[in-house]
Amino acid sequence: MSKLAPIMRLSGISKNFGATHALKDVDFSCRPGSIHAILGENGAGKSTLIKIMSGVLKPTSGNLYIDGREASLQSPTQAASKGVVCIFQELSLVPDLSVAENIFLDSPPKKWGMIDRKKQRVAAQALLARIKCEDIDPSELVKDLSLSRRQMVEIAKALGKKPKVLILDEATSALSSQDVETIYDLLEDLKCEGVSSLFISHKMQEVDRLCDTLSVFRNGQHIETFAKGERSDEEIVKLMIGRSVDAQYPDKRPLIKRETQLSISDLKWGGELQGVTLKLGKGEILGLGGLDGQGQKELLLALFGVLRGVEGKVEIDGRAMTMRSPASAKTSPTNFALVPEDRKTEGLMLEMSIADNLMIASLASISNGPFVSSTKERDAVAKGIKKLQIKVGSAKHPVSTLSGGNQQKVVIAKWLQTNPNIVLLNDPTRGIDVGTKQEIYKLIHELAEQGKSVLLYSTDYAELIGCCDRVAIMYEGKISAELEGDEVSEAAILSAALNIGDVLEDEKRETFNA
Amino acid sequence: MNNITTLFSSEDKPILIASGFIVVILLIGTAYTLATQGTMPLLTANYLMLQLQSGAFLGIAAAGIMVVILLGHIDLSIPWTMTAAAMMATTVGSELAIPTGIAVGLAVGVINGLGVGYLRVPSMIFTLGLDSAMRGLMVAHTGGYAPADQATPLMRYLASGDFLGIPMSLCVWTAVSVIIFLILRKTTFGKSIYATGNKEAAAYLSGIRTRRVILGAFVVSGVCAALAGVLLAGYSAKAYQGMGNPFLLPAIAAVVLGGTHILGGKGRYVGTLVGVILIVLLNSVLSIMQMPEAGRQIIYGTVIICMLLVYGRGQKISS
């Protein structure tokens, strides 16, 4: 297989942004019929690499070859015409257009010079069917779809361009486990058709399962490329961060009986929450799992006072509470904090400084009357940055200059400034490098040790198993199972998520037979 | 290196360009007067002071609308807020004149704020509608004629009197500027304005009461417009129909030329000050050069568009 000539080859590529070297003299090639993983921490240069390959950025120096011929890519459209298609981490869909219109946005099928809507819809349907998304109506507007469905549309859009090189940047991080399986199958198919897929992921299991070749990047340099199986997971992680790491998750905490801090009973909202009943102990880390879109997000938003018309009872320390808005939810006596799903649009004001973002939720604590005290502000900002070890040049720089992991730390630090009692986390480690993930897990444990209660929604089962004391699984707007201690396993979570009791039983039988 | 980049951040660039343009305007005007009359009246303190005095009305209105633009909204009710405040002030008269005018601005601001912040009507439509409604109310109130009531002595003093040689209108503008500057820079309200303008969803989820912030910003804008209207009535000794009309475009242009992002979230008050001075001087120099009205309008509009093009391109390259 590796004897085939590379479809795309990069030679001596460098890219500078001002004084920072995002890529340094990178040689890289990808071959037809392979699934090639690109690994590295955030800031290692992966995103810059794929942006250069897909024509979004132009390299400062170096050459790029497609099918052996030198190519200079001026735009993503040009790259796509040469068969290089990228599915970006930041979704690139137009919310107010329909699914079909989005899929064929740059080259819609035409008839008499006008867009042939019927043909467009049929073709979109065929592409969606290929990724088993028959449930998506091509004439539905993209803004009405959930984040994971949008990601699938994004994938259909890329397929519509008939790629020879398909680049997936964290494309599975927003997907439910079912869809991830579909993508795996799709990539296998494409591999047989001779497509070269480049796969960027922070999930080692995915990479192990799917990819045949792995390349590791660190600090803008291409460290090593090797076939799967040549290196152990520990070795790979070591290559990625340049040092060895200890166990990924902090030690399990002993199960103890805790007094209830937050008690939710029969919480209902629209079709999404259909009577959620749940108890969260003081200082407990409760995981929230299940397939994507089973009401987990809505549960967190309801608790945080974002949703209107929520029915049911929420008690904190035995007293009934109503949260009318985030402003009331974050203050005494409820003291909630919410790290939202999408840090770029919901968590941060990207153009504003790191300092402003850190303090925006706790302005009252650094003010005298209506005036913000600059000394108090400076102290609080320094404390927040130090506590979470956020890597910043200056707190006055825009938060958009930070890497994804550090941005997420700013969101978390912002909420720690309010000294919350109950911390709601919506997938806080999505799209974040291994090193930062570990720091966030450690932090969650520290918070719990300080007596804060944590409700953690995660799409990553390993995270729920590794990080939480107890896991509640949601299915169709209800809690379908609560697992604790040894019951928390991938099989148990999965069966509860799919709302089937058999998987667990089957597994038990198998172990029994063996 | 680091100091230089923070010194000339993207927010400073438009302010520097606009300041440079002020110098260019003064030089061109001076070259013209030197060539035609052999004098340099443009560079005298007297002339500059006069410009600042007449620029005060625009400056005060621009200060208010800047706060709304920082939210990514717009206040198109400025013209008739000015006119209505001036007319009600002269109608009521006596020492209640100025408070009455300000109260009109406050009421307009509250209505705009409720409509935009709470009812979520797009500000462009809501404020335009309110502007039209006020025009109707004022025509009904005056019968369509210029009201006969005169501005009170205090209004006249604030608009055209002076204190220790400094024009009072300039003093009022300075006071308004200090207040707006402090609000934007030093208060929680100011920080909330920038946050809401930048990304309203993130600000809301950070527990900022964004609807109140929007309401507050429109109140600031309404009050500033009303104050500008009351002063303008004092300057012309009375209120008249459509007196606020020539102020809307220059006020918005001043804010945007000063580097405030028209979609909100970014901008410094100093920029708006520079923008106001730029527009006032541009107008004045064009009239000194005896440019006919038609030519003045063309040049005026072209300059605004060209400067915005320069800013826009600069931002694209830096990002």
UniProtKB/TrEMBL annotation, chain A:
Keywords: ATP-binding, Nucleotide-binding, Repeat, Sugar transport, Transport. Residues 8-244, 257-501 form the ABC transporter domain. PROSITE patterns: ABC_TRANSPORTER_1, ABC_TRANSPORTER_2. SUPFAM superfamilies: P-loop containing nucleoside triphosphate hydrolases (SSF52540). Gene3D superfamilies: P-loop containing nucleotide triphosphate hydrolases (3.40.50.300). Belongs to the ABC transporter superfamily. This is ABC transporter ATP-binding protein.
Automatic annotation (TrEMBL), chain B:
The keyword Transmembrane helix applies. It comes from the Bacteria. Keywords: Cell inner membrane, Cell membrane, Membrane, Transmembrane, Transmembrane helix, Transport. The chain crosses the membrane at residues 15-35, 56-76, 96-118, 125-143, 163-184, 213-235, 247-263, 270-291, 297-314. It is found in: Cell membrane. The keyword NADP does not apply. It is a multi-pass membrane protein. InterPro entries: ABC_transp_permease. CDD domains: TM_PBP1_transp_AraH_like (cd06579). Its main location: membrane. It holds the Pfam family BPD_transp_2. This is ABC transporter permease. It comes from Maritalea porphyrae. The lineage of its organism: Bacteria, Pseudomonadati, Pseudomonadota, Alphaproteobacteria, Hyphomicrobiales.
